[in-house]
Amino acid sequence: MSETTRPWWVLVAASAVLGLVVLDETVVGVALPTMSADLAMSQVESHWVVNAYLLTFTCFLAVGGKLGDMLGRRVVFPAGAGGFLLGSLLAGLAPSGGWLIAARAVQGIGAAVTFPASMAIVTHTFPPERRGMAFAVQTTLAGCFMASGPLVGGVFAQTISWRWIFLINLPIVLLTVGVLWFAYVEKPVVRPPGLFARFDRAGLVLLVGALTAITIGLMQATEWGWSSPAILTLLAGGLVLLAAFVGVELKRAAPLIELDLLAIPTFTGGNIVFAVFQFEKTIVFIFVALYLQHVLGRTPIASGLLVSIAILPTLLTSRLAGRIRDARGARGPLTLALFLTALCVMAIGIGTVLRSEVLIGAVMILWGAVMPGIAVTARPALMRAVALDKQGQASGVNLSIQMLGGTVAIAVCGTLLVATGAYWLVFLVTGLCTLAAAGAAWLLVERPG
Q1: Which residues lie closer than 8 Å to 355 by C-beta, 6 or more apart?
Q2: How far apart are CA 420 and CA 406, in angstroms?
């Protein structure tokens, strides 16, 4: 390992772990029916396998960024990766649905700590004039992992065991952490006196409590009853804790999440877009795979192949979306991309009514081709709207709100599917939410004057 090749070793290793983090968003959906049958899980429990990961990821993402700043990435990255590895091992060995759900929560915490550290490591390793190239490589590799997730999940679930979608993480994590440990060089972290005393523990407790209570309330409502005291207490208590969290954060000198940034229209609009972007992506990845197996009787491999093919165009159209954004700005292209993806999602719903796999597959390919027009266009706009000294905090807020969109998606649409059994309704609701985000983009993002 020479000084010339050292940055590339760091880039590949950091990208591989980041790829596993996004892979675990998409790999589970296709295998859910097999897991449910093997562990005798109810439909709601199977949805928790997805949402336990997303919920803890959302809650602890800001913590991961803060810990990286305080302790250094050379310490935090292996710690987060170790948590992700432990969660993967426990999930692969899970003897019951409850065990699997708990293991997925551990995975999510590890992923939340690892994700911002991975991004920061690449930033610190490459000089400013080469960071664009480095992040392009990292994004492409992560996109390849994400695209392969449904097919990988289908192959393991059908041929070997669904457990290997988690166990395969172990050697990859160990190898990449080992490479980073030897390749990544970090300047010593200077810790000011009282650093840990200033950590926003109250904000963390309130945020975790609020999101957990609201998510449990929404997801369990169909089993426990919307009017049950437990559900009403969870939802009301969650809202009270969320309000308390906002109040605490606005008064803190060093808050866990700097909510003052949401006063910037473009930043607020961009975050609405990213929340809905994650909402839409989660629903398509998970519920199309479920529909193909539960309703059309397709195998896990066939379902995974269709979903993976639909994601592949994103790898080809990302550069085009960037060029359009550079030429036209963010407001118009972003609004159009959201409008088109909304139509695509609702067309998938029509395909479920017609029981047409051909229509669903064709629309999903178009959906995949348009999706980069959202992420590639919105991210630069919302980050450019924030002062340079707030960029790190803005990134943390953005990622937290984005992942919250996926948590809400499973909570709301999972409950809707259990209550009605209507896949078309799930896709209709998702499409309408995306249309609302298109309106928010037009009104808030880079608005004139």
Answers
A1: 295, 296
A2: 21
Return the amino acid letter for 180: L
Instruction: Report d(CA 87, CA 82) in Å as an integer.
Output: 9
388 token code pair: 């340079």
Concatenated DSSP letters for 54-70? Answer: HHHHHHHHHHHHHHHHH
The angle subtended at Cα 61 by Cα 67 and Cα 216, nearest 5°, is 135
- What is the Cα–Cα distance from 58 to 112, expressed in whole angstroms? 7
Whether residue 355 is predicted with pLDDT greater than 90 in this model: the reply is: yes
Could you tell me how far CA 219 lies from the centroid of its own chain?
A: 18
CA distance 305 to 121: 33
pLDDT tens for 139-179 read 777 777 877 888 888 999 999 999 999 999 899 889 888 88
**Total residue count of the chain as it appears in this document:** 449
What lies within 8 Å, CB to CB, of 2 at 6+ separation is: none
Residue 230 parent element (H or E): helix 229-251
311 and 368 in contact (C-beta within 8 Å)? yes
Alpha helices per DSSP H over 385-422: 391-420
**What are the structure tokens assigned to 433, written together?**
């939410």
Helix-helix angle 265-294:357-370, to 10 degrees: 160
Question: What b/e string do you get for 179-198 counting C-beta neighbours within 10 Å, with b at 16 or more?
Answer: bbeebbeeeeeeeeeeeeee
**What CA dihedral angle connects 188, 193, 195 and 201, to 10 degrees?**
160
Specify the DSSP class assigned to residue 168.
Answer: T
Band of pLDDT at residue 222, cut at 50, 70 and 90: confident
Whether the pLDDT of residue 26 is over 80: the answer is no
Q: Which two tokens stand for residue 102?
A: 């708990």
The answer to whether residues 53 and 165 touch, using CB atoms and an 8 Å cutoff, is no
Contact 298, 158 (CB under 8 A): no
